[in-house]
Fold these 3 entries.
Entry 1:
Amino acid sequence: MNDGQRRGVACAVLAAAFYALNSPLSKLLLGDVAPTMMAAFLYLGAGLGMAALQWLRSRSGRAGREQRLTRRELPFTVGMVALDIAAPIALMVGLSRTTAANASLLNNFEIVATSLIALVCFGEAISRRLWAGIGLVTLSTALLSAQDAGSFSFSSGSVWVLIACVCWGFENNCTRRLSAKDPVEIVVIKGIFSGLGSLCIALYVGEPLPAWLPALLALGLGFVAYGLSIALYIYAQRELGAARTSAYYAVAPFIGAGLSLIIFREIPTPGFMAALALMIAGTWCVTCAQGAA
């Protein structure tokens, strides 16, 4: 493994660890910040924080090394922003109605959504092993979402998290078309415009502005869990390629679930442990399939 690959691994693992903070810490802040307002501050924190880093980078003369976005990428950029308004709002609503551990594991459904959307919309091939992984992850999400197995009813919180995953699946396919461009610029655009869009929606539906301390904490969490995480992920893709980066990043939901169980002192149910086993097996199939592609 050369130095570039080592940097790529470090970036991918850090990206996973930073994003894993999102569900448990957002769950804590939702007691003081309304869901849509929380989504707005998370993305504004990502955009403003990365804009500050971009300014520092320009002062050091390093900004000119990256390719800037052009009009050719405008449709994918607009789609990315719109989906990044919808997805975090859905996730915050889901987090307010289900446990942080469940939400963390359900985030792996994003793999399924991204793969199927790539198949249907962009004609990308899906191997047998990837289909097996998709099936196992889907079965795991069904177990995590089931509220009452006897009546086949589903937790509304889990449904909202799955909606967020589908939105991010579409968004991943948009962002994939932009990955050769400046990662910091991409995150700044994502954060500021998606955050402002969510803020307008929050104010329109009558959600109050949070107190200054929860607002600052949400901004800081957004900078780390969305801003730094996304930028590090894109840098890792350059060194490792999409498949190997996804393999390292796949640990994020499991880190998030573990942190959630510790922070909220939750005792895993048998259903949760069965879903966890299926999710691990499904994620292994997906990452092996991606590595073989």
Note: Residues 39 and 88 are 5 Å apart (CA to CA).
Entry 2:
Amino acid sequence: MQNPYEVLGIKEGASVEEIKAAYREQVKKYHPDKHQDNPLYELAEEKLREINEAYDLLMKNQGASGGSSYNGGTSYGGNAGRNSEFAQIRRDLDAGRLDQAEQALERSRNRCAEWFYLRGMVSLRRGWYDDALTNVQTAISMDPNNYEYNNTMNMLMRTTGNYRNAAYGRGYDSRSDEMCRMCQCLICLDCLTDC
């Protein structure tokens, strides 16, 4: 998730009142009911989800510490804040250094929920959706209340669902079977006429 302050369009360190006002303004702007029968409906729905997640995160952090504790990275939960090893792996992931992140994960002996989550993020960045899904599911089973893990799982389910639906549509259906039969006939006909 990107910086929740940026999502709400406010500066870092904003007060609770500023966060609430920005949230209300963004909800009015992107509410899907406002975009019914509009091609931007799905985009508005996705944006509203981001706004709600950003608001929830900031309000949770405000309540926990009396002030904002967003750290500017992608680390919102789990062990990343307590473990510099995982924090470095997250920085490697953010910078696109997948090989370094993967090597650091392999060296780590701490196979906690955060390890599986980060392993899933490496797989996701490489385009290995099934492996990413498996690792994030393992992280959630170890830490079921982690907001970041659950948010990522929801995103993965949407992404892999679209990926699988598109892939099934490109497989061998009745039209492609007919095309294969036509090609076979043409090849056979070509062989027969060459004699």
Note: The CA atoms of residues 94 and 125 lie 10 Å apart.
Entry 3:
Amino acid sequence: MRKIGFVIPWFHKDIPGGAEAELRGIVKHLHESGVDVEIITTCVKEFTADWTENYFKEGIEVIDEIPVRRFKVRKGNMAEFHKVNAKLMRGENISYDEEEVFLTEMVNSPDMYDYLREHSEEYHRYVFIPYMFGTTYNGIKACPFKSILIPCLHDESYAYMKHFKELFPSLRGIIFHAEPEYELANRIYDLSNVNQQILGEGVETEFEYDADRFAKKYGITDPYIVYAGRKDSAKNVDTLVTYFNEYKKRQPESRLKLVLLGGGTLEIPKEIEKDVCDLGFVDIQDKYDACAGAKLLCQPSKNESFSIVIMESWLCERPVLVHSQCNVTSNFVRESNAGLNFGNYFEFEGCVNYLLNNSDIADEMGRIGRKFVLNNFRWEVMIEKFLKFFREEKE
């Protein structure tokens, strides 16, 4: 099998972001299993950087024995891009021409697309991640017969763009994280002639976790719910804070705390300031220890294609509470029987109290959750799935 090129808008060793972390894991473990892999990307630093700025030097850099091939970006009209993107973020309908502006004026590299087209015979497949960026759309257009997509798809306005509906039926293959993501994609796109596989996402499982160490380091000895992730409205964390505030009003005698981990800012109501511990970014060991010490992890997001933090909570043997409007996370909870879901405040309160008052059941959910992750998503399992997928993909 010839080498596999993984295409992503930006890449460096410590880059944040779910798709970026997933790509790092895939190429690392495929490389360790003997597969010839390469990362194909732009010179842009990361998602939060200027998408028209070439931060890294053009050319090949080797990172942890893996070649990273960088291309300069086109200087797009970001003002026009943001004008259209604002409409999409508000859920407004946009025209076909506005879609063209969105896909043309964002992060793009014509040099990359020329390379993909001209060197396609050197690669077994190109794998693109995630779906909504210019490097994915135009990269697939350059070489659809070589293209595999890991979409990281959500039920959001971007997914319904006509340009994607036109392009994705020409894909060679598509890899999904979960059954609901597969179902969503097949409702939106005609993928009848595309090789589709639900493989999941690899999770690092070889780590220690120590609840007492977390309690001692941060002085948090009361029972707590933990949230780990970006603190912004897109993750629905404001709903969690609102519900926690109501919970404390209705049960003022409760010593329950809310521990927040991750970047971003969030306004905390004054009446619960003393009960909310916003620790910001912490190192990964502290995150594991925090999960291990929690009564439960709450993942309130309504839009996920996977959820690493849920898997980490289960690996730390703690149950999870997810939003019932997120098909992916609620499906994981049903499949594993290792958590609960809520759709309104009173369901939230009932679930929290059930787990607090039935510690033996909560502990058993945690143990079941750990087994579920180890059986389905540890890297040894995932790499076998990927290898089988690529081996079945004939030249």
Note: The chain has a mean pLDDT of 95.
